[in-house]
Amino acid sequence: MIRRFPRKMAAVMLAAFSLSACAASGASPLVDVPMLPQAMQASLPASDPADAVGETLRPAEIAYVTSAAAGIYRRRPSDRSATLVPTPGHDGYGVCLRSPAAAGGHDHALIVFTRRLDGEPISQVDDDTLVLRRAADTGTCRSDGVEYVTARAG
Fold it and tell me: Which of 98, 99, 87, 77 is nearest to 129 (CA)?
């Protein structure tokens, strides 16, 4: 008995076989993509979170952090780091938050973005941002090297 595949399935199988056969043959690529000039490479955003430490926040990131601060600190006044901070033990882009604590000092939080935000708001389904509040996780935010700016006025 001969089994017939739907046309779409046959097209997908043919494409997959052709691509794997092409890759296995060691053939040269059809299009030669030149490298970017050095000047353009320097202007590209950092793709490694460790390289982005010290960069200023983008408007979408500021909006996210401001909204998060309102929820975390129940609309109390709060500050955020002026730049991205290191995230020891986590792979991502860090932003510190702090708000005056009732017992004195500050209550700190570290927000870790898995990717930089650009313009579009994150849907709840796609939001994979971490919010860390334990003292062991927010040590970076307690250091003297973090410069804070107002995130939410009282």
Answer: 87
